Amino acid sequence: MNLSPTGARRVRTRVAPSPTGDPHVGTAYVALVNYCFARKHGGDFILRIEDTDRARSTPESERAILEALHWSGLSWDEGPDVGGPFGPYRQSDRSAIYVRYADELLASGHAFRCFCTPERLEAMRAAQRAAGQQQKYDGHCLTVSPEESARRAAAGESFVVRMKVPESGVCIVHDLARGEIPFEFSTVDMQVLLKSDGLPTYHLANVVDDHLMEITHVIRGEEWVSSAPKHLLLYEYFGWEPPALMHLPLLRNPDKSKLSKRKNPTGILFYERMGYLPEALLNFLGLLLAPAPEGQEIFGVDVLIERLDLAKISLGGPVFDAAKLDWLNGQYLRALTTDELLARTAAWGFDRTRLERIAELAKSRIERLSDLAPTAGYLFAGRLAVTKDSFAGTKLDDDVLRKALALAMWRLDAERTFDKEVVERVLKGVGETLAVKFRDLSRVYYVAMTGSATSLPLFDSMELLGRDLCRERFRVALDPFGGVSAKEQKEWMR
RNA sequence: GGCGCCAUAGUCUAUCGGUUAGGACGCCGCCCUUUCAAGGCGGAGAGACGGGUUCAACUCCCGUUGGCGCUACCA
């Protein structure tokens, strides 16, 4: 049941990123629509951290996401950093709430404890796969009586809580842009609601929180369409009114696959380090959200708020067109006064602290003041023009070289923090893996990161450049060698 | 494999049955200009395919094909 945007309830939207990696432009995109929709209707926009995945969530990532979103210029009325009347806004701080609701479902018979081992589940799926059947929970623990279930749980046996799903019937999902989407209940899995560590899965947490936080419109990525029936079912089990749903198309790589780090820069902070203005980035994303009247493609968030119409959002997955972003950014740069341009440039990469550090690194390596710019220039650049020839001086053959670049890139990505110590440890580790003296290997990294085999210290340079720019430089360096295939990635990562 | 979403130029899009299918990025050309940009002007370039419905289909319906998503004790 859809709520009218002009209905009695105050409109409340949210963006709910999971702190499991670098802040993604997709998050900014989803945040932007939710922000504008809330503003358009005089409502509230909430930021909630979905960190129920204990293994992958990190505080570093959460901090980075808040920082990136703040940089973009978006702000939220409630969130982990600003508080609000519906807190806490970090799901790991709400664990007890989910357990309570899971118990409620258990008591009402809408959910059951599942004691199946991962091994059994894996074997079950393998069999279903082999038989060409749909893969879903077979209902094994559905037969455990409530009494036995309670007893086994009390005895300390490990279990998860799964939701029950009707065996037949159809669930109609009302999507604000797509209309009615029918799902046979028989194709809906008995989703795990509470994991054996006592934390909820997205499905439970999201429904409980959206209800308690009085979210009226859930505007999220298309990847959630197929789990919408589960969510709707949970609202029904709880006796709650579901929010209106809207699924946004996913941002794509130029080859139309889902925008991914392996093929493209996806980090918000990458765009910041490259020197894009946040207003240009938001304008670019806004272009994917609201059709621009002819010749009026340059507009700010205020205009987007006016133009936004969820039902009119184009549903084809838009390719993230970096060339158009470049053009837009140029437009914004040109619109700045010289004073503004200088101020923004200074704030971007020429702040006193950074310059001091660079000066110290460069001091012993320059003989004239005029040497400074050529020596440190790469620290203020985006992508570097490196070719195969740039690596000519290295003693490594192409394959080892590719591996050296790729391993460094992936291993650095896997690190929680990115500073000179981490960089040093990781790069030297790659040397050990490849059984190459670091002295020979470092040259490769110097070329890829600084564009030259002779420049300021590598580890400091990389820290100064930052994770996102370094990743991109690795990618660019790998390019003339044909990149790395997904298959190789799998092999090399072992 | 199963389920679902999507489908106008290379890319982002307009069109809500009747248009020479409009705009933007990119590309090409011209103008401006000491160069290069920027800016101005112009150009090439699109309805995936096959069936219906209709006086009329890019637009509605069905199928095919293709792309994408989901198919975890990840979100």
List keywords for this structure.
globular, mainly alpha, 494 residues, Rossmann fold, two-stranded parallel ribbon, 20 helices, Arc Repressor Mutant, subunit A, RNA-binding, single chain, disordered N terminus, Glutamyl-tRNA Synthetase, domain 3, 9 strands
- Described by its quaternary structure, the protein is single chain
Tally the helices.
Answer: 20
Q: Roughly what percent helix?
A: 40-55%
CATH class of the largest domain: Alpha Beta
Number of DSSP strand runs: 9
**Low-confidence runs:** 1-6
Q: Characterize the largest beta sheet: strand count, sense, and whether it forms a barrel.
A: 3 strands, antiparallel
> SSE order, as H and E?
EHEHHEHHEEEEHEHEHHHHHHHHHHHHH
Range of strand content? 5-15%
Main sheet: strand order: 3-4-7
> What radius of gyration results from the CA coordinates?
26 Å
- Into how many domains do the coordinates divide? 3
